[in-house]
Design goal:
alpha+beta; Hypothetical Protein Pfu-838710-001; globular; two-stranded antiparallel ribbon
Length: 254
């Protein structure tokens, strides 16, 4: 079962390069590689078994939990277009929190995910608590971001983006016995396309039965990661959940 209240972010404090700290703080991951796989026609139990019997002795490290994200993009969908065009250096911007999808969100972060091929890392700005309900609008959500981020360059960028998609799923976490590799399994994926100013009131949603598996590791272990992924009978994909969600709503047909 997925826990609705587990709030362990598993993040690493580090330098923020050219980004200044936000009013609360900025958190940054170390550089890592990711391999993503879409799984069809297999049960969660079967996928769990495949992960546990593959090399490097993977085991589940804590209780499953629900992950929620609000994805942002420009009016011209620049982030989406960069992804589907195969541009190596690209970014993704989202608000992420764990647990309940609606109500008072006590702990959330603004995540900027920077990618270069398989490599990527995240910068996280901690946000104040806010309510997600039928009255939440894109303007109110933007004000929450502006008031929380003390970073001129980032605030300019935030003024040019709008909320586009909500994604929610249940995630299970695994780690190799040598602590070098992590695998996540995502199920019960739900997408909501934001159609108007209200974040929830004007959304349409679709539930997805597919499972997504992600393998995450340091760049220097890429060859060993190939050994692990070669044991998976899954289709590898470069698409993120953001792109997959938009595809579900035929958003790319233009």
């Amino acid at each position: 079962m997925c826990s609705e209240t587990d709030l362990n972010y598993n993040v690493i404090l580090s330098n923020t390069d050219n980004f200044e700290s936000g009013i609360r703080s900025c958190i940054s991951d170390e550089l890592r590689f990711e391999r993503k796989f879409f799984v069809k026609d297999l049960s969660l139990e079967a996928v769990d078994l495949i992960v546990k019997i593959c090399p490097f002795g993977f085991y589940e490290i804590h209780q499953p939990r629900y992950v929620n994200s609000i994805y942002f993009d420009t009016h011209n969908l620049t982030f989406m277009n960069d992804n589907i065009s195969g541009i190596s250096n690209r970014k993704k911007l989202r608000i992420r929190w764990y647990g309940d999808a609606e109500g008072l969100i006590k702990e959330s972060v603004l995540e900027i995910k920077l990618k270069d091929g398989l490599a990527g890392y995240k910068k996280r700005f901690l946000l104040p608590q806010f309510n997600i309900d039928e009255e939440l609008t894109d303007n109110r959500l933007s004000k929450i971001l502006y008031s929380s981020i003390n970073n001129r360059r980032l605030n300019i960028e935030l003024q040019s983006v709008i909320p586009v998609l909500i994604c929610r799923y249940c995630r299970r976490y695994y780690q190799s016995s040598d602590n070098q590799f992590r695998i996540t399994i995502d199920k019960n994926i739900n997408y909501q396309l934001i159609l108007g100013q209200k974040i929830l009131g004007s959304s349409i949603s679709e539930n997805i039965t597919d499972i997504v598996v992600e393998l995450k590791y340091p760049p220097e272990l890429d060859k060993l990661a190939a050994v692990i992924s070669n044991n998976f009978p899954f289709r590898m994909t470069k698409n993120s959940k953001y792109i997959s969600g938009l595809e579900r709503f035929t958003y790319l047909n233009f």
